[in-house]
Amino acid sequence: MELNRMAICLEDLHFSYISDQPVLKGINLSIKVGEKVAVLGRNGAGKTTLFSILSGINHDYQGKVTLAGRELKQMSRSEIAQQVALVPQKHEPLFPYLTRDFIMMGRFCSMGLFGSPGSEDLRIVEEAAIETGAARFLDRPYSTLSGGEMQLVLIARALAQQSEILVLDEPNTHLDYRNRFLVLDMVRKLAEARQMTLVMSLHDPNDVIQFAERVVVMHDGRIVADGRPVEVIDEALLAEYFGIRAVAMKNAAGNLIFKAVEAL
Amino acid sequence: MRRLGIFLICCAILIIAVVLSLNLGNFRIPVAQVFRIMSAKLCNTAMPEIERYQDVVLLSLRLPRIIMVLLIGASLGISGAVSQGIFRNPLVSPFILGISSGASFGAGVAMIFFSGLPFMVDLGAAIGGFGAVLAAFLIARSPGGFTPRLSLVLSGVIVSSFFTSMVGILKYLADSESQLPALTFWMMGSFASVDWASLNPVIYIIPLCMLPMVIFSWYLNILSLGDREAMLLGMNVERWKMFFIALVVIAIGSGVARCGVIGWVGLVIPHIARAICGPNHRDVVPLSAFLGAIFLLIADNLARSATSGEIPVGIVTAIIGTPFFVYFLRKREVALWN
Questions:
Q1: Nearest Cβ partner of B222 from A79, A105, A161?
Q2: Which residue has the higher pLDDT, A165 or B263?
Q3: First vs last C-alpha separation in chain A
Q4: N or C, which end of chain A is more exposed by having fewer CB within 10 Å?
Q5: How many Cβ atoms sit within 10 Å of the Cβ of residue B204?
Q6: Which residue segments constitute the domains of chain B, with CATH numbers given?
Q7: Range with the lowest mean pLDDT among A130-134, A171-175, A186-190, B143-147?
Q8: Taking the mean position of all CA atoms in its chain, how far away is CA B74?
Q9: CB-based contact (8 Å) between B221 and chain A?
Q10: Rounded distance, CA A46 to CA A223, Å?
């Protein structure tokens, strides 16, 4: 693999849902293949909007978005899905599909017009389930799973897309303490094993430091900081963009951690 | 294996139901005699000794009627499954969405004003059906592009009652000697006047609409996740929704044009199918076609043999269908409404 190849390239990206109320105000960002990037920002900073542009849902943006060198607007939906797999925060189940059938839906983008799942697709689904630890409930309905298990299945479905870029929108928001760690740890290892580019929005600076090698801080539709987490995140940044007074400290292993003290 | 088993059982039930339907009626024909006449006809050999009119009743009245019932039953069942998938809503059917009443209005207009031209009734039904589903969808859609489940049901009811009242106006305009009785009886949904000629073009249109629904049934799984997720998985959502809606409207419209509005089949059948084979649309869609055909055949047999006269079949399906709907609402209650 060419190491310095760009996976994602955003140039002067603007977007607004309602005219005169821009959500993204000129984003410039390049992410290399295989990079593990966390996007940090308060609610409403534009993270989710940025992700829906990356995954081809919001098409009417201004500026330039290229995925693996190709202009996003010229790609079909299935081509985009082959490049970018987005794991949504949550999926509200309606029909109680079996987990196996649910993960199988990730194969849609790779099928031809008259395609329906075959044995090769089944193998890919089972592989994704094993890697995410979802294999043990493949034959249970998705709607009966716990929140943590659902998240694993959503990630397995994204893996089944076999895309180069994995985008996670707040992957651990709805999870308990143990599952929060489990999911992020697993995603990091998966991205390494599969040499995928990882882009995830996170809320906890400590998670960013632990699980990402690069952080992009967004505030009010702009990127205000970008770099290695331990260099970028400090008390001043947390105060200015998150309105929180936090103290930096080292844990027993010598790693930087932040503890929030009061809201400013 | 399980899939094959269900398929074989459905085929067996269907064949038994067809044979019994040929036998049943005010003019009874013994099963053995049914087989003799059918095989004589199929092999083109001499007719066996028969009572007067047995062959006429069987071949010219009952057989085309049964074929029509099977076609329309299958189209109602499969369209219900497809609608529930694309609208991500287990409470809808072509009937609830107003497609049936829209189609009946379109067909009624064609019957009264363009009665001389061939296939105008079918065309009118399709146009009316499209108008109805579009209206129901636009009324229910909130500004953000999100369609709440209950709103869609309610707007379907609104559209449905609008078109029903428009049909009332048509009745008022219709010639009370020649047009009104036919219009009224057709409106209630009936197979009483089916003959070989009336099977054209339904016998082509319905299978041609059902085939792509079955071929692409797996796509309904993706659509049923909701617009946003279907897009994430790489689906061109608008295009595929339109594709499926068009198939449903054409299939339902052509049935309505011939035999009027028959409710409840499309709502009830997919739920029974899901109870048998699980929620995967790859199984639900073809099974709903089978079950719809079997259900409507049983309903039609009741309609024509329960009393000495003939009850419109739409009344029978409503009598069976409404308690089921109540049961379903009580069982699943709140979760579905949000």
A1: A105
A2: A165
A3: 46
A4: N
A5: 11
A6: 71-337 (1.10.3470.10)
A7: B143-147
A8: 6
A9: yes
A10: 10
- Could you say which of A82, A88, A97 has the minimum Cβ distance to residue B280? A97
Contact A77 B235 (CB under 8 A): yes
Q: Per the structure block, which two tokens stand in for B188? A: 């209630």
Task: Give the number of C-alpha atoms closer than 13 A to the C-alpha of residue A95, restricted to the C-beta side.
Answer: 31
Q: What share of chain A is helix, strand, coil (3-state, %, to 5)?
A: 40, 30, 30
Q: How far is CA B72 from CA A225, B60, B211, in A?
A: 63, 19, 14
Q: Does B232 touch chain A (CB under 8 A)?
A: yes
- pLDDT at position B96 is 85
pTM of the model: 0.91
Q: Do B234 and A109 touch (CB under 8 A)?
A: yes
Phi, psi angles (nearest 5°) of residue B263: -90, 175
Respond yes or no on whether the N-terminal peptide bond of residue B201 is cis (omega within 30° of 0). yes
Compute CA distances B21 → A202, B70, B279, whole Å: 65, 11, 31
Chain A neighbors of B222, CB-CB under 8 A: 105, 108
A154 vs chain B: nearest CA distance in angstroms? 11
What lies within 8 Å, CB to CB, of B330 at 6+ separation is: none
The more confident residue out of A75 and B92 is A75
A116 to B218: CB separation less than 8 angstroms, yes or no: yes
Q: Among all residues of chain B, which has the CA nearest to that of A84?
A: B232
Q: What is the pLDDT of residues A76-91, one digit of tens each?
A: 999 999 999 999 988 8
What is the ipTM metric for this complex?
Answer: 0.91
* Residue labelled with tokens 């198939």: B247
Give residue B338's pLDDT: 42
Given this model, what pLDDT does residue A15 score?
94
The answer to whether residues B206 and B94 touch, using CB atoms and an 8 Å cutoff, is no
Yes or no, beta carbons of B218 and A88 under 8 Å apart: no
Q: Is A173 helix (H, G, I), strand (E, B) or coil?
A: coil
List domains and CATH numbers for chain A: 6-233 (3.40.50.300), 234-264 (no CATH)
Contacts of A248 (CB under 8 A, 6+ apart): A234, A235, A256, A257, A258
DSSP B45-103: -PPPS--TTHHHIIIIIIHHHHHHHHHHHHHHHHHHHHHHHHTT-TT--TTTTTHHHHH
Of the residues B232, B235, B241, B334, the best mutation for testing chain A's interface (the one with the most A CB atoms within 10 Å of its CB) is B232
**What does the CA dihedral B91, B326, B268, A91 come to, rounded to 10 degrees?**
40
B99-155 pLDDT per residue, tens: 999 999 999 998 888 877 778 888 999 999 999 999 998 888 876 666 777 788 889
